[in-house]
Amino acid sequence: MELLSTSLVDWSRGQFALTAMYHWLFVPLTLGLGVIQAIMETIYVKTGKEEWKKAAKFWMTIFGINFAIGVATGIILEFQFGTNWSNYSFFVGDIFGAPLAIEGILAFFMEATFISIMFFGWNKVSKGVHLAATWLTITGATLSALWILVANAWMQLPLGMEFNPTTVRNEMVDFWSIISSPVAINKFFHAVASGWVEASVIVLGISSWYLIKKRKEEFAKKSILVAASFGLFAVLFIIFTGHGSAQQVAAHQPMKLAVMEGLYEGREGAPLVAMGVINPKKETYNDDVDPVVMAIEFPKMLSWLSFSDVNAYVPGIRNIVEGGYTKPDGKIADSFETKKQMGQTAITALKEYKIAEAAKDTAAMAVHKTTLDANYKYFGYGYLDKPEDTIPNVPLVFYSFHIMVILGVLFLLNFALALFLGWKNKLSDYKWILWVFLWTIPLGYLAGQLGWIVAEVGRQPWTIQDILPVQAAVSSLQTSSVLITFVLFAVLFTVLLIAEISIMLKQIRKGPESN
Amino acid sequence: MITYSFLQHYWWFLISLLGGLLSFLLFVQGGQTLIKSLGKTEDERKLITNVIGKKWHYTFTTLVTFGGAFFASFPLFYSTSFGGAYWVWMLILFCFIIQAVSYEYQNKPGNFFGKNAYRGFLFANGLLGTFLLGAAIATFFTGSQFSVNKANIAEFSGQFAPVISQWQSPWKGLELLFSDLRVWFFGFTVFFLARTLAVLFLKNRIDNQAIEERLKKALLMNAVPFLVFFLTFLIWTLLAKGFAVDPATGVVSLEQFKYFNNLIQVPVLLILLLLGVVGVLYGIGFSVLKNTWRKGIWFAGIGTVLTVTTLLLVAGYNNTAYYPSTYDLQSSLTIFNSSSSYYTLKVMSIVSFLIPFVLAYIFYAWRALEKGHATIDEFKEGHSY
After folding, report:
1. Residue B18 · residue B26 · CB < 8 Å
2. What is the DSSP string of A318-367?
3. DSSP B109
């Protein structure tokens, strides 16, 4: 056996994070633009007005530029589960592979097939068929998001499976519970709506630029009307699904919730931190130093948002490590030491089960299986060393979460304002507001990135919650190999991003007519 | 009652079929290596780029689905091969990343690298992408150096990596290039096949006398090396030792003429392989003999699907280890020891009933965009690459 290398684990995590973050620069824009262009083409087909067709075609050009690079980064994500997380692929592949395969068969082909009609079919198929193709393209894209988010949600809340010691893997026993998981449903709507918001922010910003420059004003006003209405709907929806997501986190990933809020000491009627500063003097989880300073708080809000009860108890990081508090289901929480002990017992039982199996000793097999089953829920803790291993990076998750929420409020105000001014036909009178809309564009990208940092950094060290930590999931590779591919990906994605932005800027400068 | 074994065979068939379809659709990659030699003016090159470029999504999606379906149905292959032959798969991925952006970006102003760089990316994808995919598939017959030990995961000291599948060569996949000459033969087979199919596809689609003249020569230039490499690989493999599995004990051993025996013992495979090879030969041969005949791509295309599908079936059916380990024969992967559970295969099989529906709309969309023959003027207005 090869030695376990922590730098290998870190570079492998880094490579996955890098790919995922680049992927999520392009994909949300296509998810939202896909709907916006389809709405515009629908209006064109209904009214027969050419300017709507022109507007739809312009945004399709932007869509195409982003789609290509979204596809390029997406294929890497899929194959990286195998290349860099070999143990993971085997240990849970029986469950995790299925949504990926279904994504390919049912969603990607729909997208790939109808995108060619959307781009090349204007003069080859009827108006109605073309419109259907445009809607089917975005339906395919959204379905692919559904399946990959079902897979991601399962990593956060593993259900519908059983561990089989003979095959040494987790096996699916209930497909329906996996696809109807409350985490999956919330995650899907939250992530897709974040794409709608991001695209609306970008369409609003670009259209504002046209108004500032006094170019293509009719086109810009039409685009603002669609983007602001769609964006407003999406941002309200995202608040709703965000609340749902937080409740799922509170129920299934208490550590993530505590880290999001910088909550070390649990309490009843816990307040929600609107904003604050992580105290750099806080060194350990149990040193009694105040974790958040200069905090602006809403009393009892965290308890209410998490458990719909203003007096509910929310455990802090220290409580989750030390255990002993009463969980919402009435059971007493286990401490890290207990979980680690049970994890090691489970792993040892598996080892002995395999020895008994080789010796065809069925009685011993049954004994070890019973021990394994009784302790399996904390299997992954057996690979961990100390309590700190279970605590994600607090400042990163805390700030990401709070900035994301603040940005959501900003977007809400922007869309409402754009809709109001657009309705009064006064957009061009307030140039500074148009500048604000324009400069909100990078924030639209930022919000999406922050959301995924909360979701993924906030659940470290787990690839599968409580079952498989990163160090037991990684492939057996030289660190140098992963380091080289990391650098290659970083360079390649960065230059492609530069090309992508540069192409988009040129297309925007050219404007809709030139398509 | 549907048995576990039936589902394992069914999913190996679907994986093989996806492999066959992917091989056919690699004509896009083949075409990418011909843009410069077949098109002498920019207009001609643009025509060729657009005619094949309209199909790039299909090849890409088939590759992604091939990966996803393999993951879902044979996860131990996914973890062993991808996590082990790291560099081969990474190189293949790099070839496809650069392809995905190149069609859309090559003619757009402000594209940073300039048109020629993107055409260079397309060429690299067409050359390395096809060769490496062929080389990787060849190891299904020649073997790789890995070991599988599921008990490894029960190691939790924090000192050793508890990894189940361990690749034993420090070259992490690149050693396949020095392992067996057949790897090179099959790599070149796929490369020249992709180019041959591209020529036949362009012959079918394009209405342009100058390009058609060049296609005639290009067909022979690519079909001949393709046939030489393919027949050498095929005959060599049929005569070579194969990796047989004892159905009672699961023990893997080397058997002389194993793949040939598979064809004899399962005659339907022999018939499919012959039909496939005849289809390819007919598609190529008749196109050479009769210049006005444009339908060669369909015979050669269907022939390719049949041939490659059957080759993969030969690698996995009839008690054969489809992903053999030359380091430890007993670590070799078979469709029985590497598949998903009965339940998962059953769920996935139900989903697979939708495949004909998917094929139907692909067929519709493909035809809708291919009315008449493509000319230079067609891509002067509207969306084009």
Report:
1. no
2. HHHHH--SBPTTSPBPPPHHHHHHHHHHHHHHHHHHHHHHHTT-HHHHHH
3. T
How many angstroms separate the CA atoms of B66 and B15, rounded? Answer: 7
Residues of A in contact with B153 (CB under 8 A): 87, 91, 168, 347, 350, 472
pLDDT for position B159:
77
- The CA distance from A30 to A38, in Å, is 12
Residue A5 φ/ψ, nearest 5 degrees = -115, 120
pLDDT higher than 50, residue B130: yes
Please report the number of interchain residue pairs, chain A to chain B, with beta-carbon separation below 8 angstroms: 314
Q: Is B86 on the interface with A (CB under 8 A)?
A: yes
Residue showing tokens 């003249």: B213
Which tokens sit at B267?
A: 């005659």
pLDDT tens, residue by residue, A261-271: 999 999 999 99
Q: Smallest Cα–Cα separation from B97: which of A80, A33, A110, A192?
A: A80
Q: What is the ipTM of this complex?
A: 0.95
For B216, other C-beta atoms within 10 Å of its C-beta total: 14
Burial of B268 (C-beta count, 10 Å sphere; 0-12/13-18/19+): exposed
CB contact under 8 A, B351 and A344: no
Q: Is A288 exposed, middle or buried (0-12, 13-18, 19+ CB in 10 A)?
A: exposed
DSSP H helical ranges for A217-266: 217-252, 254-261
Cα distances (Å, whole numbers) of residue B191 to A279, B42, B178, B284: 60, 25, 19, 16
The answer to whether the Cα torsion of A348, A350, A354, A360 is positive or negative is positive
Is this structure's pTM higher than 0.90? Answer: yes
What are the angstrom distances between the C-alpha of A315 and each of A5, A414, A456, B242? 33, 36, 20, 60
Identify residue B162 by its one-letter amino acid code: P
Peptide bond into A328 cis (omega under 30): no
pLDDT mean over B276-304: 96
The answer to whether B346 contacts chain A (CB < 8 Å) is: no
Contact B108 A91 (CB under 8 A): no
| H helices present in A327-468, as ranges | 336-358, 362-375, 394-423, 431-439, 441-457
pLDDT, position B384: 83
Which residue has 């020095």 as its token pair? B178
Please check whether residue A73 is in contact with residue A28, taking contact to mean a CB–CB distance below 8 angstroms: no
Query: Mind listing the pLDDT tens digit for each residue in B132-170?
Result: 999 999 999 999 999 999 999 998 887 778 999 999 999
In this predicted structure, the answer to whether residue A515 has a pLDDT above a threshold of 50 is no
Q: What is the pLDDT of residues B71-90, one digit of tens each?
A: 999 999 999 999 999 999 99
* Torsion A333-A335-A338-A339 (CA) sign: positive
* Residue B36, token pair as written in the block: 């410069």
pLDDT above 90 for B181: yes
Q: If you average pLDDT over residues B235-240, what whole number do you get?
A: 97
Compare CB distances from A116 to B90, B354, B365 and report the shortest one's residue: B365
A-chain residues near B87 (CB < 8 A): 481
**Å from A382 to nearest chain B CA?**
7
Range A260-271 burial, b when 16+ CB lie within 10 A, else e: bbbbbbbeebbb
Task: Compute the distance between CA of residue A335 and CA of residue A325 in angstroms, rounded to an integer.
Answer: 10
> Which of B228, B195, B227 lies closest to B38 in space, CA to CA?
B195
Output the pLDDT for position A1.
Answer: 62
Whether residue B221 has pLDDT greater than 70: yes
Question: What span, in angstroms and rounded, lies between the C-alpha atoms of A475 and A83?
Answer: 7
Per-residue pLDDT tens for B325-383?
Answer: 999 999 999 999 999 999 999 999 999 999 999 999 999 999 888 888 888 888 877 77
Rounded to whole angstroms, the Cα distance separating B149 from B169 reads: 16
Per-residue pLDDT tens over the stretch A485-513: 999 999 999 999 999 999 999 999 999 97
